[in-house]
Structure formats: C-alpha cells, structure tokens
Amino acid sequence: MSRKVRLTRVTAIHNIATHLKRFVLSGPDLADFPSGQDGAHVKVLLPHPGEALPNLDIKGENPAIKRSYTIREFDASNKELVIDFVIDCHQGPATDWAAGAKVGDYLGIAGPGARKLTDFNAGSYLLIGDITSVNAVNGYAKFIQP
C-alpha cells in the first residue's frame, strides 16, 4: 500500500453523536488515493497547536503529530476521504484537534496501510468492536458476500 503523504482540507463536518464527529476531507493530493480501502487505516498528520498546516515532512524536524484512523469511505470521483473522530471521551492531540476543527482547516494523510482482514471466504463472520472500530467493521462488511 502507498505511504504517500497528502495535504487535505476539511470540507464538511457532521456531528454523528455527542461524542463522534465525521470529517470529509478533500484536496488535489487525493487524486491518486487508491479506491476500495474502506476499513483500512491512514495516519492522520495533525498541525501542532497554534499552527494552521501540519508539517508533512514526517522525518524532518518537528514533524506533524501522527495518529492512526480508519477510513470510513473514499469517493474517488469527488476526491473525498471520510474519517470519524471520537471526541468528548478523553483528551489528546487528535481529540482536541477534532473538537475545535472547522471547515477549511488542514490535515495531512499518510497511507493507506494494509487492511487487517483480507480473506472473505468463510461462510459467516462475527465482527465486534467499540465505537473506534465501527469504520473497520463497516469497511469489511462491504466485502462479505451473503
């Protein structure tokens, strides 16, 4: 899988629940983002507090803050990547960023990484997870044939 680093911009924010925000990210750097990766992970590259842009030089001095997130969906025709952030349950760089983020804010994306589940030949599946794994379950469910 590609580990390319891309700059994106928040184009929409949807409050899914009091503790869950859905972010739609877009930008020209997503033109070559691979399709069919729902449920895989990306590294989200956050700007440091007080900065508007994340440092995309991940091996350079003072690189962006990195956290792993699961892809909800990717719309290649519109170059839109959707990622959910859990908020209000704890504090941390990503949670704090998501709680205060606005449309127009920037976020870096590295990846996607490989899916953890790739064999869909079993007769049935039981997928269980907490709120942070709902997008992985959603992504894998698209590949399971009834």
Protein architecture, described:
The chain is mainly β and 146 residues long. It has a single domain (5-141), classed as Elongation Factor Tu (Ef-tu), domain 3, CATH 2.40.30. The chain has helices spanning 93-100, 134-141; strands spanning 5-17, 20-26, 41-46, 65-75, 80-86, 106-110. The chain has a 6-stranded antiparallel barrel with strand order 1-2-5-4-3-6. A hairpin with a 2-residue loop joins strand 1 (5-17) and strand 2 (20-26). The two termini are 28 Å apart.
| Topology-level CATH name | Elongation Factor Tu (Ef-tu), domain 3
User: In terms of per-residue confidence, which ranges show pLDDT below 50 for 5 or more consecutive residues?
Assistant: none
Radius of gyration: 15 Å
Number of domains: 1
Strand order of the largest sheet: 1-2-5-4-3-6
Query: What is the second-level CATH architecture?
Result: Beta Barrel
CATH class: Mainly Beta
CATH superfamily: Translation factors
Main pleated-sheet profile? 6 strands, antiparallel, barrel
How many helices? Answer: 2
Binned strand content: 25-35%
Helix content: 10-25%
What general form does the structure show? Answer: globular
Order of helices and strands: EEEEEHEH
Output the structural class.
mainly beta
Number of DSSP E strands: 6
Distance between the termini: 28 Å
Mean model confidence by pLDDT: 86
